[in-house]
Structure formats: structure tokens, C-alpha cells
Amino acid sequence: MIWVFAIVMGVAVAAGTYLALSRDLFRMVVGLSVIGAALNLLLFAAGRLDSTAPPIIRAGEQVLAHAANPLPQALALTAIVIGFALLCFSLVLVVRLMRATGTDDARALRAAEPPSGEGVKPPLEDI
Amino acid sequence: MIGPAVAATGELAPATPSARRLLGYAALPLTLFAALVAALASVPLPWSVHAAWVPSLGVDLAFHVDGLAAQMLLLICGVGSLVFIYAAGYLAGTPRGGRALLLLSLFLLAMIGAVSADNLLLLFVFWELTSVLSFLLVGFSHEQEKSRKSAQQALLVTGGGGLFLLAGFLLLGDLANTWSIRELIAAAPHLVDEPLLPLALGLVFVGTFTKSAQFPFHFWLPNAMAAPTPVSAYLHSATMVKLGIYLLARLDPAFGQLLLWDVVLVAVGSITALWGALHTLRERDLKRILAWSTVASLGTLTMLVGLPNPAAALAVASFLFAHALYKAPLFFVVGNLDHGAGTRSIDHLTGMRRYMPWTAAAAALAALSMAGLPLSFGFVAKDVITAAKAEAELVALAGHAAVIVGAVSVAVAAVASLHVFWGRDNASRDAHPHEAPWTMLLPPLALALLGLLFGIMPATVDPLLAQAAQAMAPELGAVTVEASYDAAPVLTALALTLLFGGAIYAFWDGLHRTLERASWLDAYGPAAWYQRKLQALSHIAAWHTRLLQHGLLDRYLLTVLAVVTAVALLALFLSAGRWQWPAAQGVSLPLAAAGAIAVAGALATLRARDRFVLLLASGLVGYGCAALFLFAGAPDLAFTQFAVETVFVVVAAAVLPEIRGRRAAAPALPPPARIEPLKLLVAVAFGTTLSLFLLRAAGLPFDTALSEFFGANSVPVAHGHNVVNVIIVDFRALDTLGEIAVVAFALLAASPLFKLARVGRGGTP
Amino acid sequence: MTPRALMFEVAMRALYPLLLAASLWLLLRGHNAPGGGFVGGLVAVSASAAYAIAFGARRARLRMPLGPPALAAAGVLMALASGLPAALLGLPFLTHLWTTLPLGVVDLPLSTVMLFDLGVYCCVWAAVGGYCLELLGAQEHNT
């Protein structure tokens, strides 16, 4: 079972990373979403996959029988929601950015770092 | 109302203090000087103070004053007192004059610390303090570009050298297993065979040579003449530049017997002396003439420290003393000329004695000593130096250097006194010259008269110099400093230098013109080298900034990811020996199908040309992951993932039309279907690395204590059957509280963005 | 005028309360079966998003009990408040307490855990929903 998780996670992370490296801002956001989903798999699988029974105690019982590890599930669950909030934030940011600059090309966003080419003035001359 | 007004005038015109107010600062060195003289008269040397400071590092507040340190202290406080008085007159009416005197006071204290410290690291701290204060004082007139550059140069050279010194100290301390200078000297005989000793000494050499302006680090000193004259007289002639000589003299008893020590010091000292003498003749600015002759004198001192015979120690002590007694007053004289006649160029200064008789008298007295004429202390010093050299087996270079430097000193003395003050007044000047106030006349006269007094009665300073010499050369017995007017070699040497010096003075202008034309000296000297290196530094900075800060967002991300992947892979490889692949088991059909859906979605995102298709493909990945959760026993995760993915696809799809609309106006991107190999490579490497990490982790032992605790206590303690939910809302409720607070704050933080978006809506098409 | 699918609007009028009810049901059963504040909140977000697609983000926002920032803040405050009783009793903060409220025929079980989970639900609904409505609203104003 760990192999399925490892392979799916690896492929999804690779695809998501490739999308996130794109110059196209929308593809970047979609890449973030794919990476997020894949990393939740990683988080869950890191807690070992010994059982496929949900960690829910049956009615009338006091102690959890052999079941999937509940702890990474709790962590991954909050991670999914927080990751989604982050994703929405990025999407808002991208839409706002496109509206302000009129482009969705990451390379066109150069207000802070104008293209090089102008010679750099040496700071010190002869005394 | 008053506050802003005061602040405004303070902005426009900085406080211009009167001489009377500035004189108050002189109380510090005068008090210290009086205390020092009283202590020297009553308490026998050496004095020691010791207190722990950073015991764990072996850095103690350890001070030890022996003859050598006492001599330096006398110079620092004695010359310091006169410099402070002079500065009060010189800086009166100068904006921020008080600040210069405050910095001088700090410098005074730092120098006292540096020469009395017995701990290498403590010495280093004071040493660097003097460098920093020198930077501030050289750059005192910071509105002038020249001052700023000179200050920067002084700091880079002496501060950079200080770092070498620190490295040398650390090595020495490590070799000797002590930070105490006295213990280091005691341990030195055992260090002779250490293979690292030459390296340690080399580092110390760089530190001392930069500080004491030895070739090839000398060039900062003449440039430091941009400082106010009292600063030049104090830091760059009498005290700070002597600190390097002092340290060499301090370590001389430890390493003086090493051939390396003697050869390096004699060679570097001689070359510096010659180089300084040569450049002295190339200048027309009297202050720079004095600066170059100071370089030559410092070279002579270094050479004397390098001479292995004990008599040289006495020569060092005498010359150190004599130099301060004649060079400082000459600097004061230049300051007076600058002040009274408005120029420092010897072309415009002749016959000044008519206007500035007292300054002329001081110049004549100091010049007497500098030229080494009989009855001056300079003669005594020269006498001792000649004796020391006669004893040592000198290489030809050192011998010739000494003669040439002596001759040039005579010539400089003649220029500073005869040329400037005597002869006909036929030069054109803008201002009418006038005499300086008493504050600027007392210091040069007092110092020059002292030089004469000690020359006539050497016995007055004899005990002090002898003790200083004994600190450098413990094997030196009882010695006396006295002028031996009868010794033939001394008189021969005197005659020789006077003859040469007179010739140089007579042909000064001709020599100057010849040397002026020797522009190769400028093109290939160390100063040019420094300039080129400094420019290269800024070019390298510009080049690597262009290389790394290219402003391409995707490239930044690519670089970061590539580095992270490389580091992670390295860690994996280093632990490769202990790998254990997990067994491939427990794969159910639904699980495999869910995985296949996710993989198919991931691959489809790479090939998707249309953004909507891309979005759907990414949704497929999310649904596949959700299904994986479901079949692996995590229904909570599955539901959450389903909900998230659905909402994301729907919302993003709703935004798409607008992005499409923008896209028409935007410059065309390369078609996304074309795979970029480098990015794909890094992405695949990153994904593979994470997979390998997961598989590696699966093979490691696992601690289930926490999960078992949650499973056992969920129902009895928390009254909940869904353990995941119980963990979220009960066992780890504080975490969850923090997380929802973050989510809520993110919304608040983003709301300005929303508002901007609404504002921008109407304006842009 | 923006043309909208009539059927969708009609369906949405009925679906919205149903979806919210489902989300509440997920919230309440969360302690003993799959569900809980996070999942419930997300289902509520999907309800709001669907409503916004049918009737516009502004009306969807009005259908929420409070404006998104206020609701998110209220959620965090509810979660905070659920820890206070324990703190007042001298127990560690966020130690949950249980009681039952007798209502004649049935006993209603009450606990601070429910308040906490309700806070999570509100916060997720408001914060994530706030983003989604903003995105949907931005699109709708431009067409």
C-alpha cells in the first residue's frame, strides 16, 4: 500500500512542481493545488499504513481496535483546510495582479527588479 | 513653538563651539598625564591589574604596564594633552568641533587600553577600536568626497589588517595555550618548532604592517591627511601608527631570535623607509611631505625592531620618543600655516617668519631635532641608532636605506623650517598671513623645546628609555642614553647625512620635477593595486547580482527547488547503506484504481493546453487522492478533500473567463504544451526525492505511543467515538484554535486586497 | 442583466437550505462518526459558492448569518469561549466539560466540545467562503 501512496505522491508532486515553475500565473496556482493534495498524501502515509479500518470506535466499545493511525489524519485534515485557504488567497492575489498589471506572465512582473543591461556604476574612483 | 525652532536652527547650522569650551576636553589627557607621571615617580614598574571578563573564553581584563607600555602611555597622554589644547584652537568655530574632541577622547582611552592590555583578545578589541575611531576622525569633514574616500581606505586597510591580526592571535594563542601576552613570551622558546608558527607570525605581520603603514600597505597614511591637523599629528604620526611597531616590539623578546622575524622586519622596514623617502620628494603639499616622511620613519622603526642585537631595543625606544617630539610639532606648524596663510603648498609658502614668528621658532626647533643636529634629542636618537646598526650585521639594503632616510629627513626639516619661514616672501597668496592663537602655539613650542631639553640632558629620560628597552630585550643590562659627541662613526654619519640632506634640499625642485614625471610609480604602486581591487570588488558584486537577481520569478523558484532537491538527495545517499525497501502488500483493487486516477490526472495536467482542461485534470488528482484516503481508512480526510477539490474547481472555473479575457491583451506566452526540459527534470527529481523519503521512512521503526494513547482515551475521557475528530477538537484543541485563528486572520489580511480589487474594477479594461 | 439558468436558480433555492442542513448534520455527528467542524464548514462553503453562482456573490454573502470577517471572528471567539469554563474551574484551558440538559421527555447532551466544533465550522465557512465569494464576485462584476 505504501508503494501506491509513494508513486502517486511522487508523480503528483512532480506534475504540480512543473506547473508551479510555469511562467503562467494561473498554472502556478493550479500547480500549488496539485502539490497540496499530494503532500497531504505524504503526511498521511508517513504515519504508517497498517490498517484500512477507519479510526472510529464501535458503539459499546471503549478502546480503538486495530485501525488506521488517527494522529496523522487529524494533522492532515487541518492541513487540507489551511492549504485550501492559502490556495484561495493565491488565486485572489493572481486575479488582483492580473487586473492591476494586465498580464499573467510571471516574467512580465518586474517592477521591483527592472531588467538588467544598464551598466553598473563603480562606487569608488581614484582618491 | 520653541522646540521646532531650535531643531530647525540645529539642522541648518551645527553648534560651532568656542575654543574655551573645547579646551574643557583637554582636562582628560592632562589629568591622566599628571596621574601617570606621579605614579611613575612613586610606584615602580611593572604594574598589573587582572579581572575576569569572559572566563569561558579565556578573555580577561588583564593589564600589564612595563617600561615599553609606560613609554607609550607617556606619549599618548603627554602628546595627547598638547594635541587636545591645539585642537581646541584649531577646531574653534568649526561645525561639530566638539564631536572631534569627543572622538579624540575615546581614541585616547582606546590607545591606553591597547598598549596596556596583557590579553591578546583584549588587545585586539582596543586595536580595532582605534581603527574605527581613526575612520571617524579621518572622515570628520564628511561633506567632502575626498575625506570619505580616505576614511574608507584607512578603515579597509587597517580594519582588514586587524582581521589578519585576529587570526594570527588565535593561532598564537592556540599554539601557546594562553591568551596572556606575558605567558606567550614565556612559552615562545617551545613554539619555535611548531609548523604553524610562521603562518601565525605572517598573519600578525600583516596586521601590524597595515596599522603602521608599512609597504605595501602604507598608502592609506598619506591619504589620511584629509583629517584635521590635530588628528594627523596625534593618530597618524605620534600614536596610532606606532601601535603596530609597539606590538612588534612587545613580541620581539619572544620571536626576535627567529631568522624569519629578523629578515621580514628588516626587509619590509627598509623598503618602507626607501619608498617613503622617495615619495616625500614627489609632494608639494607640506602635510603630505610630513606624512611620507612619517612612513619613512615608521619603516626605520620596523627595521630597528627586526635587528637582533639588544642595542637595537634602545634605538627603538629612543627613536620612538624622538619622532613624536619632532614630528607632532611639525604637523602643528603645518596646521598653523594652513590656518594663517590658507595654503599648505610649499610653492606658496616662503618667508613666513615675518607674519608667524612663534610658529617659525617652533618649526626651527623641531627641524633641529628632525635633522639630528647636535644638542637635540634627534641627535641622541640618531647616535643610538648608529651604534645599534654598527653592532648588527646589516645587509646593504638596510644600511643604505638608513642613510637615505636620514638625508631626506634633513631635507624635509630644511624645507619645513628654512624654505617656508626664511628667505624672501615672493609667493602669491590669496589671504594675508597671520599668526595663530596661543592654543596653537603652545603645543608645538612645548614639544620642540622638550626635544631640545632632552637632547641637552638625556639623563632626564634615561631611566624610562632604558626600562622600555629592557622590556624589548630582557638580556640588555643597565644602559644609558647619552650623546657621544666624540665617537668617530657618529660624527661621520652625521656629516654624511647633512651633506646628502643639504644636496637634496638644494636640488629639491629639480628632483621633484624628475620624480613627478615618473608616473609609473602611480600606475604600479600598491595604491593603484588597492584601487583596482576595490573596483573589481564592485564589478564582481554587480556581476553576481546580475547573475542571481535576474528578476525571473520562475527561475528563482527553479533554483531554490534544485538546491533543496540536491541537498535532500545527498542526505538520502549518505544514509543509503541502511536502506530497507518496504514490502509491496495490501494493495486492494479500489486503492489501485484511485491511485491510477490521480496519476492520470497528474499526467494530464502536463499535456493540458486549455486552462479549463488543466483545472479539471487537477481536480482529478484531488479526487484520486480523496479516494485513496477513503480506501486507506481515512473517511474524514476523504470527505474534506472531496469538498475542497469541488469548491476549488468550481470557483477557479468561475474566474477563468476573466483570465481568458485578460489573456487576449497580454503578450503571448510560449504554448504551455511545449515541455521545458530543465523544469521537468527538476520537478521530477523533486517528486522522486519525496517518494524516496516516504519509502525510506516506512522502513524505520515507528513509535505509536501517542496514537495508542488517543485510541485508549477517546471514549472514556473525551466521550467521542471518532478518534480523529476527538484529537482535533479535544486532545489537540489548542492547535486547532491556533489554526482557525490563522485562517480567520488570513481573511482579514486579504480584505485590503479585496478592496483594492473592487477599486481597480472600474478603471482597468 | 446577467442571464442565468432558471432551473439552476430554482433548484438552488431549495438546495441551499438542504446543503446547510447537511453541513450541520456533518458537524453534529462528527464526534462519533466521520464529519466534524472542518468538513461541515467546507460543505457550507460549497453551499454558499453554489448560491453565489446562481444569484451572485452579494446575495450569497447576505444569506450567511454574518459578514465573512465578522463570522470568522465569531468562530474564533466561540472556540476560545469553549475553553473558558475549564479555566474558571481551575482546569487546564480547553479541557472540555460535558453535561445533559433534561427537557422532560429527552435529555439533551451538551458539551463545550460542541461549542468548539461550532466555532471551527463558522470560521471555516466564513474564511474560505469569504475568499470564494470574492473570487466569484470579481468575475460576475466584470461580465
UniProtKB/TrEMBL annotation, chain A:
Keywords associated with the record: Cell membrane, Membrane, Transmembrane, Transmembrane helix
Topology of the protein relative to the lipid bilayer: Multi-pass membrane protein
Transmembrane segments: 6-21, 28-46, 74-95
Pfam families: Oxidored_q2
Protein's cellular compartments: Cell membrane
Principal localisation: membrane
Gene3D superfamilies: 1.10.287.3510
Residue runs in coiled coils: none
GO cellular component, one term: plasma membrane
PANTHER family assigned to the protein according to its UniProt record, in alphabetical order: ANTIPORTER SUBUNIT MNHC2-RELATED
Family as reported in the entry's similarity comment: Belongs to the CPA3 antiporters (TC 2.A.63) subunit C family.
Designated name of the protein: NADH-quinone oxidoreductase subunit K
Organism: Candidatus Methylophosphatis roskildensis
From TrEMBL, chain B:
InterPro entries: CPA3_Na-H_Antiporter_A, MrpA_C/MbhD, MrpA_C/MbhE, ND/Mrp_TM, Proton_antipo_N
Annotated ranges, domain NADH:quinone oxidoreductase/Mrp antiporter transmembrane: 117-398
Domain MrpA C-terminal/MbhE: 680-750
Organism domain of life: Bacteria
Domain NADH-Ubiquinone oxidoreductase (complex I) chain 5 N-terminal: 56-96
Chief location category: membrane
One Pfam family it belongs to: Proton_antipo_M
Keyword Transferase attached: no
UniProt KW keywords: Antiport, Cell membrane, Ion transport, Membrane, Transmembrane, Transmembrane helix, Transport
Protein name stated in the entry: DUF4040 domain-containing protein
Organism annotation: Candidatus Methylophosphatis roskildensis
From TrEMBL, chain C:
Subcellular location: Cell membrane
Taxonomy, superkingdom: Bacteria
Record-annotated Na+/H+ antiporter MnhB subunit-related protein domain positions: 8-128
UniProt cross-references to InterPro entries, sorted A to Z: CPA3_antiporter_subunitB, MnhB
Record's GO cellular component terms: plasma membrane
Entry keyword set: Cell membrane, Membrane, Transmembrane, Transmembrane helix
Leader sequence segment: none
Membrane topology: Multi-pass membrane protein
Transmembrane region(s): 42-58, 70-93, 113-133
Assigned protein family: Belongs to the CPA3 antiporters (TC 2.A.63) subunit B family.
Entry protein name: Na(+)/H(+) antiporter subunit B
